[in-house]
């Protein structure tokens, strides 16, 4: 019988004392629940001096915003812990450190990041971290290259694919990204004023074929171990530092999905900025987001190419020029997946604060409409956009 029980704050303190790896575990005296997500309990554990020392995270057996009518597998906690451990091996400077994991309790103890801030909030507040986009590109390049066919022996790669199979969480992604926004569904969430815009998504045959192609790639292309949900709310930043967290959607999938999701969240912020800042400040911040996107992709592509040149182990994939061909395919995938992120965050179940916290209702609707229009365009014309600079030009065209 499973030992699973939902943790209380005191349970979290006692667990952190036992498994936090601290020199003075008895100093831990208090826990505060800080999680604002739908899938987990997250506790910050404090010592007697009021200093936060460690984090305890436990998976819930259901989606909290929906309730027990939407059950979830607890095995996602294992997958998250193992994804973060694997990513930490390849990018320790940009991945949260996992100290301990218990599969029966679906709980992990991890590094405290109180010195950092969630990137999404900083982007909304127009607080700029000049290295963040490049650091995210480095994280994606190192984690995705080292878990790909370029680097892993075929036997090891296939064993890893089996180890990280994640059907329940992938089904959530498949529904929220590729199904729900393009049909009438009770999970969809958008203002009535956007009904015509959303109906146009359902009626656009060209768009739905392009989305079907992206979904098929998500189904069938086990290219590398993805984070699976790499948005600005799952990234912590500080001066000179970036750390990825929250990898319960980790699985082997198309590399462009992680890259596209990351770019998509920068574009969601781009769309929402006029609702948070004055005209001149919003224009300047938007230019910075476009620069961030170029830096993210160019850093990723340059680093992935360098790793392929230095460390590829497969004879065929080491052929001169192949890594460049592969990166072009990743890029086109990324643009399409970026578009699905823009749309699903505008009309689907889970929105983003970049737009939802805009106080002026008319402006909020306009920002949502912008995200939908931009997302639709990027999905349809993804194959025509060959560089980050061309993407920026297209964003300007639809803004």
TrEMBL record:
Its EC number is 2.7.1.100. One of its GO terms (molecular function) is S-methyl-5-thioribose kinase activity. One of its GO terms (biological process) is L-methionine salvage from methylthioadenosine. Substrate binds at residues 229, 344. Residues 31-263 form the Aminoglycoside phosphotransferase domain. The keyword Nucleotide-binding applies. Pathway: Amino-acid biosynthesis; L-methionine biosynthesis via salvage pathway; S-methyl-5-thio-alpha-D-ribose 1-phosphate from S-methyl-5'-thioadenosine (hydrolase route): step 2/2. It catalyses: 5-(methylsulfanyl)-D-ribose + ATP = 5-(methylsulfanyl)-alpha-D-ribose 1-phosphate + ADP + H(+). ATP binds at residues 40, 57, 111-113, 246-248. The keyword Oxidoreductase does not apply. Keywords: Amino-acid biosynthesis, ATP-binding, Kinase, Methionine biosynthesis, Nucleotide-binding, Transferase. Homodimer. Catalyzes the phosphorylation of methylthioribose into methylthioribose-1-phosphate. Belongs to the methylthioribose kinase family. This is Methylthioribose kinase. It comes from Enterobacter hormaechei. The gene is mtnK.
């Amino acid at each position: 019988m499973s030992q699973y029980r939902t943790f209380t704050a005191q349970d979290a303190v006692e667990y952190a004392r036992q498994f936090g790896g601290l020199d003075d575990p008895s100093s831990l005296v208090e826990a505060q629940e800080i999680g604002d997500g739908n899938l987990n309990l997250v506790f910050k554990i404090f010592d007697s001096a009021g200093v936060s020392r460690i984090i305890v995270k436990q998976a819930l057996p259901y989606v909290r915003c929906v309730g027990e009518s939407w059950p979830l597998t607890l095995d996602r906690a294992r997958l998250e812990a193992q994804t973060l451990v694997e990513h930490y091996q390849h990018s320790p400077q940009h991945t949260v450190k996992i100290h301990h994991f218990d599969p029966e309790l679906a709980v992990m103890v991890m590094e405290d990041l109180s010195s950092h801030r969630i990137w999404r909030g900083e982007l909304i507040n127009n607080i700029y971290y000049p290295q963040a986009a490049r650091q995210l590109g480095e994280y994606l390049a190192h984690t995705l290259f080292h878990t790909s066919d370029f680097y892993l022996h075929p036997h090891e790669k296939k064993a890893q694919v089996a180890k990280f199979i994640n059907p329940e969480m992938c089904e959530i992604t498949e529904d929220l990204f590729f199904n729900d926004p393009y049909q009438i569904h009770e999970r969809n969430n958008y203002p009535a004023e956007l009904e015509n815009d959303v109906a146009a998504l359902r009626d656009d045959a060209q768009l739905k074929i392009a989305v079907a192609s992206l979904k098929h790639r998500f189904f069938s292309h086990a290219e590398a171990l993805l984070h699976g949900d790499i948005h600005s709310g799952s990234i912590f930043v500080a001066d000179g530092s970036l750390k990825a967290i929250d990898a319960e959607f980790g699985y082997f999938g198309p590399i462009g999905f992680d890259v596209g999701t990351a770019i998509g969240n920068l574009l969601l912020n781009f769309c929402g900025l006029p609702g948070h800042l004055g005209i001149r400040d919003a224009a300047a911040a938007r230019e910075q987001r476009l620069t961030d996107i170029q830096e993210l992709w160019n850093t990723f592509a340059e680093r992935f190419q360098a790793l392929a040149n230095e460390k590829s182990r497969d004879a065929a994939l080491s052929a001169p020029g192949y890594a460049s061909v592969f990166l072009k395919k990743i890029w086109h995938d990324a643009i399409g997946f970026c578009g699905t992120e823009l749309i699903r965050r505008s009309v689907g179940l889970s929105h983003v604060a970049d737009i939802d916290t805009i106080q002026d209702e008319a402006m909020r609707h306009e920002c949502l409409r912008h995200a939908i229009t931009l997302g639709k365009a990027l999905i349809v014309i993804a194959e025509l956009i060959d560089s980050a600079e061309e993407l920026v030009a297209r964003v300007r065209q639809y803004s």
